[in-house]
TrEMBL record, chains A, B:
Lineage, uppermost ranks: Bacteria, Pseudomonadati, Bacteroidota, Flavobacteriia, Flavobacteriales
Record InterPro entries: ArsR-like_HTH, HTH_ArsR_DNA-bd_dom, HTH_MetalResp_TranReg, WH-like_DNA-bd_sf, WH_DNA-bd_sf
Keywords, in A-Z order: DNA-binding, Transcription, Transcription regulation
Domain HTH arsR-type: 8-103
Name the record gives this protein: Metalloregulator ArsR/SmtB family transcription factor
PANTHER family: REGULATORY PROTEIN ARSR, TRANSCRIPTIONAL REGULATOR, ARSR FAMILY
Keyword hit for Transcription: yes
Listed NCBIfam families: HTH_metalloreg (NF033788)
Region forming the signal peptide: none
Amino acid sequence: MGITKTQIFNVDQNQMATIFKVLANPARIAILEYISKQDACICNDIVDEIGLAQPTISQHLKELKSINLIKGEIDGKKVCYCINLDKWTDIQRILNNFFNTTKSNCC
Amino acid sequence: MGITKTQIFNVDQNQMATIFKVLANPARIAILEYISKQDACICNDIVDEIGLAQPTISQHLKELKSINLIKGEIDGKKVCYCINLDKWTDIQRILNNFFNTTKSNCC
DNA sequence: ATTTATCATCGTAATATTGCAATATATAAA
DNA sequence: TTTATATATTGCAATATTACGATGATAAAT
């Protein structure tokens, strides 16, 4: 089907899955790494850096924005993307909580 | 296309994406949580617990096994799944490393 | 030996994701 | 105003994912 039965899972489970889904692509990982590596708020040299077409990058940025992992500030005709540190830290906390809580006690 | 251009990304980026992809589904999150909650190595009560058909669960378990996040021990006609703590901890370390390394220094 | 129970695999339908060309939009420069 | 530059959106093709019924394989129970 390709459709996930979100209704049968709780909010936390769906939230976790959504976060993981946004991160589940090497292009988006590379974009995040590239954005963070820059001293200043570097914009879409991302297209040059990553080997993907401009619309593709634009779409990936949109997905990263969908969970507020990055923010884009308009600067003239350019857009300056940077990581949203608050959300970044928040998500790291959520994931660690999941990993610490979900641990086997068998085998 | 639906096909990710893995060739243009490095091993670490692809590995990260693969890990995230395996976790990017609420059913698999729920399965992990359920397995970890049990005192003993509970097997496919998972099917009863989660509201999905047995082949679906089996497929999800296969994906979790694909990165060694869980291991399945055969016990008669049952299979006993549990979390692979070594790998679990390893992945948590990898993710934290990513989150700590990839942080913005702008905006 | 047959039946039953547990789990895996196969095949398939429905939907999602990835990527890009074409196009739209918006701002800056000329 | 026209042109160039930067980014977003649309539409589409190719592939991936999710889910399940049918079927297979295996082991315990009868």
